[in-house]
C-alpha cells in the first residue's frame, strides 16, 4: 500500500510541476531540465529502502518520463521543434 501511495503522490507532484511549467519562461525551463537530468543521474534513490523495490523502480521511471516531457516542453517553447521538423 505504501508503494502505491508513493507512486500516486509522486505522480501528482510531477503533474503539478508540469502544468505550472507551461507558464515558465524559456531560461527557467531550460535550467530546470538540465538540473533535473543532472540530479537524476547523480542522486541515489533511497526509496527502495522505504517501499518495495519494484515501486522504487516504477517511481524512477515516472520521474524519467516527467523529465523527458519537460525537455519536450522546452523544445516546443524555444522553437526548436520547427528546426527539427
Rg, nearest Å: 15 Å
Task: Tell me the total number of β-strands.
Answer: 0
Q: Supply the number of helical segments.
A: 5
Alpha carbon gap, first and last residue:
44 Å
Helix-strand string:
HHHHH
Low-confidence stretches: none
* Class by alpha and beta content: mainly alpha
Main β-sheet, in a few words?
none
Percent helix among the residues? over 70%
Mean pLDDT: 92
- What proportion of the residues form beta strands (DSSP E)? under 5%
Spatial shape: elongated
Organism: Haloferax volcanii (strain ATCC 29605 / DSM 3757 / JCM 8879 / NBRC 14742 / NCIMB 2012 / VKM B-1768 / DS2)
Transmembrane segments: 29-47, 54-75
InterPro entries: DUF8216
Pfam family, one: DUF8216
3D structure, described in words:
Helix content is 85%, strand content 0%. α2 (26-42) packs antiparallel against α4. The longest helix has 26 residues, at 53-78. It starts with a helix and ends with a helix. By secondary structure, it is mostly helical. The mean pLDDT is 92. The relative contact order is 0.18. The protein has five helices and no strands. It has a domain at 1-19 and 38-77.
Amino acid at each position: 500500500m505504501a508503494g502505491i501511495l508513493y507512486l500516486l503522490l509522486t505522480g501528482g507532484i510531477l503533474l503539478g510541476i508540469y502544468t505550472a511549467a507551461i507558464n515558465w519562461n524559456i531560461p527557467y525551463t531550460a535550467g530546470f531540465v538540465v538540473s533535473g537530468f543532472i540530479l537524476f543521474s547523480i542522486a541515489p534513490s533511497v526509496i527502495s529502502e522505504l517501499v518495495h523495490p519494484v515501486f522504487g523502480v516504477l517511481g524512477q521511471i515516472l520521474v524519467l518520463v516527467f523529465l523527458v516531457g519537460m525537455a519536450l516542453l522546452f523544445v516546443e517553447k524555444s522553437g526548436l521543434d520547427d528546426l527539427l521538423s
